[in-house]
């Protein structure tokens, strides 16, 4: 055994023991921070303090979370009244994604990492945060869909990269340093938690190479290649029979080999134990540990590595090289974070402290983020915005009308404070309030009469309905996508009794079948506010009273209930299958009816798009003949690889005019419809997007640069990028334009 010949073996094993969630120190000396050279001058001789006092490092908790604000979900971060009582709680990611504003996503990362670093300095947070969640929101029932940027791989990738950079990048631009360490999770094809009898600890996701390449893996690839993320977390589930955390092809060969991750691969909590106990993947926990280390895992959330690495090595199941690699990847990340640079207060972010958490500016940004994300779905002429001077009394009704925790969703922390919908609206007008239902489950109609009474008296009605974590959350997927319980009935009865406009506000993570309200002329407006964060009520009031002109767009398809009646959640195929009647998933593949489509969202203004410039014909010159595939005359597609296709781009230039009376912020989405020459291509895909601010009657021009080989290509059956030749149709709003692609 290698162990008997290597004098460092005991040390290596000792370090391996540390690779559990909490690095623990057995020595009597327990420093407050690593490399305290003032109190221990002997440390100076080590190059990286420069060091570790024979492992004289303080215990380090790896698990912190900062999905939409610093959270206390992981044990390494906590709040208490004396030190840091709370942190700014931004809207849940699904709403932030609806803003389609990349600079906002990046800014949120910066602000959240500042609060995180401030909390680290005060001793109540770690430096490694296991956020963001960039899984594809594949099915509307998923209880964690709210945590993600939605169903589109390009949006998820852009969100992931912008947020990761915001969290990680230091002010001095030194890429070796990290402000905090981010983590893109959960790799991969993880988007089912607990649906009927299927759960994530047993689920084997059967995924095609095509779906893996152009959908499930894309956000992770971009997190590593474009975001330089410090960590990837492997998921609980199996992918085509192999647990993600034990899959060498996914971890070592792809994440580290092809994408060149500069950082560590962590498990979920505790994936290794799940592999052993729930999946019964191996006969012994040592073998599971060896599988994971051999596959490329560096860190385990849980104590499996701590308990079983030593015996796995002794049994010869895994060698020292693998253990060294795991230790090195984890510890170099801590070095990049300044963990071994001595007293945190003397470092780059050393001046940050309690005063930098929950600042007025940070809380204002929570309100601004919600405003930018809110999606207006229906607005009969003259319904919204309401003029406060016209409203002598406003009826505010519904189980979420005075919501607090329901606004912050999964992976939240303790917010600085809450502004509930009722409080936000009451700041502008006189309100009357009735819950109607005392809980989102809404099994009783007892409160309906009181609600109808105030609706009949008031000048306008706002119904705040939807879900909360009792309906959709981690470990709980929905089985139905209607409003829960008797909520539909409450909305309809209140609308019937009302004498003024009726505004239905849907507070939820996932999409809801609100067709009944869409079709009901008495429901004059519908808006979706996601889970809008601590300032949700203020943002909602800003939109309702026209202080903010809504510009959010749905980052996921809203399906009718018939979709969940016929499609099993465990079917991972993105592509439709006409032979079985399977309708496919997301706007890229699903052709059936929707309640509201991906990208949908109204404004109080109208915007007109006009094409200024785009080519009609494009001739691709190949770097190298597309040998073996086809001759020039019969060729239907070419390899979109750098070797063959090279770099060629064109501009699409348009003008956008705001022809309304209000200034507004408008997201322009550029789609393409590729020619259907590659098997199972998407019918439509998002190429790019941009959000612009426009005054009333004002115009701006927008230029999209389209990289032909990278952006117009699609993935074939075997997972290879192909550029289909022929007619590509570009679409922006109502504008369509064809480009003929030739070689
Ligand atoms: C708050 O946390 C700090 C740091 O961990 C600790 O010293 C203090 O005792 C805690 N206070 C309370 C009231 O729990
Ligand atoms: C690791 O060992 C500890 C102490 O024996 C035990 O409590 C824990 O359950 C073990 N964990 C696993 C995953 O086996
Ligand atoms: C250690 O194990 C890995 C994975 O099985 C193997 O590729 C490598 O050659 C081994 N190294 C040594 C020094 O035995
Ligand atoms: C609304 O919620 C807030 C915060 O929980 C609470 O203080 C207030 O009393 C509630 N208002 C009503 C009318 O119930
Ligand atoms: C409503 O129904 C749910 C689910 O059946 C049940 O768990 C809950 O206790 C009920 N609530 C009330 C107030 O009856
Ligand atoms: C699934 O959900 C049910 C009902 O809430 C719960 O009892 C069960 O523990 C959950 N299972 C898992 C694996 O999360
Ligand atoms: C995008 O977000 C940033 C940060 O909040 C904001 O300054 C900018 O105005 C937003 N862009 C648009 C067009 O709304
Ligand atoms: C209109 O747009 C131009 C540039 O596109 C800008 O300079 C001007 O300030 C805008 N006017 C208003 C009223 O927004």
From TrEMBL:
Compartments it resides in: Secreted
Give a Pfam family name: Glyco_hydro_3
Cellular component terms, GO, for this chain's entry? apoplast
Q: Where is the Fibronectin type III-like domain?
A: 666-736
- Indicate yes or no for the key word Flavoprotein: no
The signal peptide stretch is 1-27
Q: Which InterPro entries match?
A: BXL, Fn3-like, GH, Glyco_hydro_3_C, Glyco_hydro_3_C_sf, Glyco_hydro_3_N, Glyco_hydro_3_N_sf, Ig-like_fold
Say where the protein is mainly found.
Answer: secreted
Annotated keywords: Glycoprotein, Glycosidase, Hydrolase, Secreted, Signal
SMART domains the record matches: Fn3_like (SM01217)
One biological-process term from Gene Ontology? Answer: arabinan catabolic process
Keyword NAD belongs to the record: no
Q: Which GO terms describe its molecular function?
A: alpha-L-arabinofuranosidase activity; xylan 1,4-beta-xylosidase activity
Enumerate the PANTHER family for this protein: GLYCOSIDASE, SUGAR HYDROLASE-RELATED
Entry protein name: Fibronectin type III-like domain-containing protein
């Amino acid at each position: 055994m290698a162990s008997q010949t290597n004098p460092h073996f005991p040390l290596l094993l000792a370090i391996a023991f540390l690779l559990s969630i909490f690095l623990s120190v057995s020595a009597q000396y327990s420093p407050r921070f690593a490399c305290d050279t003032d109190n221990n001058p002997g440390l100076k001789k080590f190059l990286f303090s420069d060091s570790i006092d024979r492992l004289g490092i303080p215990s380090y908790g790896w698990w912190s979370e900062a999905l939409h604000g610093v959270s206390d979900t992981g044990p390494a971060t906590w709040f208490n009244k004396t030190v840091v009582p709370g942190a700014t709680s931004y809207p849940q990611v699904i709403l932030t994604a609806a803003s389609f504003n990349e600079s906002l996503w990046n800014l949120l990362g910066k602000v959240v990492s500042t609060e995180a670093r401030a909390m680290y300095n005060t001793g109540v947070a770690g430096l490694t945060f296991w956020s963001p969640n960039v899984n594809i929101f594949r099915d509307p029932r998923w209880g964690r869909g709210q945590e993600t940027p939605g169903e589109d791989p390009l949006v998820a990738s852009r969100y992931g990269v912008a947020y990761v950079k915001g969290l990680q990048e230091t002010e001095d631009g030194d890429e070796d340093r990290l402000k905090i360490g981010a983590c893109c999770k959960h790799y991969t094809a993880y988007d089912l938690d607990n649906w009927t009898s299927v759960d994530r600890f047993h689920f084997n996701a059967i995924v095609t190479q095509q779906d893996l390449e152009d959908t499930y893996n894309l956000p992770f690839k971009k997190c590593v290649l474009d975001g330089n993320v410090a960590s990837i977390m492997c998921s609980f589930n199996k992918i085509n029979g192999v647990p993600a955390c034990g899959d060498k092809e996914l971890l070592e060969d792809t994440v580290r080999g092809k994408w060149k991750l500069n950082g560590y691969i962590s498990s979920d909590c505790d994936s290794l134990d799940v592999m052993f106990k729930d999946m019964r993947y191996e006969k012994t926990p040592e073998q599971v540990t060896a599988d994971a280390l051999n596959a490329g895992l560096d860190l385990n959330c849980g104590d499996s590595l701590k308990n079983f690495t030593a015996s796995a090595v002794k049994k010869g199941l895994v060698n020292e090289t693998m253990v060294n690699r795991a230790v090195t990847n984890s510890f170099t990340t801590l070095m990049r974070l300044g963990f071994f640079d001595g007293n945190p207060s003397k470092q780059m972010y050393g001046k940050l402290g309690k005063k930098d958490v929950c600042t007025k500016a940070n809380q204002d940004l929570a309100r601004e983020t919600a405003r930018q994300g809110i999606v207006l779905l229906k607005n009969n002429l003259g319904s919204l915005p309401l003029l406060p001077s016209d409203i002598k009394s406003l009826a505010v009704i519904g189980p979420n009308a005075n919501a607090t925790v329901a606004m912050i969703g999964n992976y939240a922390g303790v917010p600085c404070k809450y502004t509930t919908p009722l409080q936000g609206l009451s700041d502008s007008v006189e309100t009357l309030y009735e819950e109607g239902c005392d809980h989102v489950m809404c099994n009783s109609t007892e409160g309906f009469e009181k609600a109808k009474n105030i609706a009949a008296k008031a000048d306008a009605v706002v119904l705040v309905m939807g879900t909360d974590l009792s309906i959709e959350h981690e470990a709980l997927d929905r089985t139905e996508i209607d409003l829960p319980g008797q909520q539909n009935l409450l909305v309809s009865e209140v609308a019937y009794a009302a004498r003024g406009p009726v505004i239905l506000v849907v507070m939820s993570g996932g999409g809801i079948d609100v067709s009944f309200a869409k079709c009901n002329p008495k429901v004059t407006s519908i808006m979706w506010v996601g889970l809008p964060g601590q300032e949700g009520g203020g943002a909602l009031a800003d939109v309702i009273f026209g202080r903010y002109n809504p510009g959010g767009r749905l980052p996921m398809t809203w399906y009718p209930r018939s979709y969940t009646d016929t499609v099993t959640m465990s079917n991972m195929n993105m592509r439709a299958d006409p032979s079985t009647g399977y309708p496919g998933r997301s706007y890229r593949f699903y052709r059936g009816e929707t309640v509201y489509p991906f990208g949908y969202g109204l404004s109080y203004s109208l915007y007109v798009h006009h094409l200024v410039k785009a080519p009609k014909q494009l001739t691709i010159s190949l770097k190298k003949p597309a040998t073996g595939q086809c001759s020039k005359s019969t060729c239907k597609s070419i390899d979109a690889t750098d070797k063959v296709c090279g770099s060629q781009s064109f501009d699409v230039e348009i003008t956008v005019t705001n022809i309304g009376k209000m200034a507004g912020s408008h997201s322009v989405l550029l789609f393409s419809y590729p020619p259907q020459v590659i098997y199972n291509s998407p019918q439509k895909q998002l190429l790019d997007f941009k959000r612009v601010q426009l005054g009333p009657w004002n115009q701006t021009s927008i230029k999209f640069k389209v990289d032909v080989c990278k952006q117009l290509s699609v993935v074939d059956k075997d997972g290879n990028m192909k550029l289909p030749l022929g007619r590509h149709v570009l679409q922006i709003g109502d504008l369509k334009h064809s480009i003929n692609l030739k070689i």
